[in-house]
Amino acid sequence: MRRFRALIKKEMTHMLRDPRTLIFIFIMPILQLVLLGYANNTDIKNVPTVVFDQSNSVESRSLLDAFKATGYFSFDYVANNDADVNRLINGGNVKVGIVIPPTYSSDLASGRTAQVSVLIDGSDPTIASAVLSAATLAGQAKGASIRAQQLALQGVSSSMASASPIDVRTRVLYNPDLLGSYDIVPGLIAMILFQTATSLTALAIVRERERGTIEQLIVTPIRSWELILAKIIPYILVSFANTILILVVGTFLFGVPLRGSLILLFALTGLYLLPTLGLGLLISTMAQTQQQAQLMSMPIMLPSFMLSGFIFPISSLPIVLQAVGNLLPLTYFIYIMRAIVIKGAGLDLILPQTFALIVFAIILLGLAALRFRKSLD
User: Fold this and answer.
1) HSE on the CB side for 81, CA within 13 Å?
2) Which of 207, 272, 297, 318 has the fewest C-beta atoms lying within 10 Å of its C-beta?
3) pLDDT tens-digit readout, 172-223
């Protein structure tokens, strides 16, 4: 037992002498609990919506109140014409557009069926299917209420109600069949690139240190930025090969269309790889061993997987987690991939996300270069 206790004491001492590893060991369970508890929410709510109310009447506002009461719609924008509605949906600012015709109020008053158009962004089938059902049910419920009031004024029993006075015509854009592959494949490209690029580069400098080859780099006249670029370029080439492979498989096996510019897609993929690889190199400069590098990567991988919009809609997350998701490069690139592949969007519609990737690249690559020291420390 004395030898046994001595071995246990030795292992405990080794563990306590590595506080960096201990911190990440205890952070992961808490992080998993918080993220899975708050982010694992499949309820769709507060979907960004643009309203084009040409009637601008008491009846049209009452209909909008019925839509809002479902909890699915968040009226964030007001359009002045159809072009504004299409622009906001194409640019990804909103997921739903509600268009009420100028004759809405008069149609109801004369007993005619009033038509209302609901345009739905189908690039995210989870949101689109939920909103499609909610819009249809809200229109039916409001129509039944109006018909009952009309019959009551005529002294007719509500059981004699005929067709609904409101015809909600829904139209799903980009993905009318609501195929899940349209949403998953572009997101997978972004996620796989993030995982492979960050994980591989996180081990780059640490591997040199563990093998002792860092000493050979020290005696050379190579500069910090030259080493950073030398570490990044091979992984960029591998990541581009992965992108091409996933696009080919997704197109031919799952029937996912590529509606946007292939040149723009690869250009922005290259831009996205810069902050991703910079993050991996930054981890590599802080870790002392490959095990530490892997443990330090995990608290970044999990939030990126859960909060980037890859699985759960960002609009359904709590405000705090939405803010955390906005600090992740993956969030912006998933948006870019879906906009180019599914919507055929041009650079003008994804400029804010492109600018965000540029800022991330400057910050993360700059920090990695500053932290790297050509020394054994």
Assistant:
1) 1
2) 318
3) 998 888 888 888 888 888 888 888 888 888 877 777 777 766 666 666 666 6
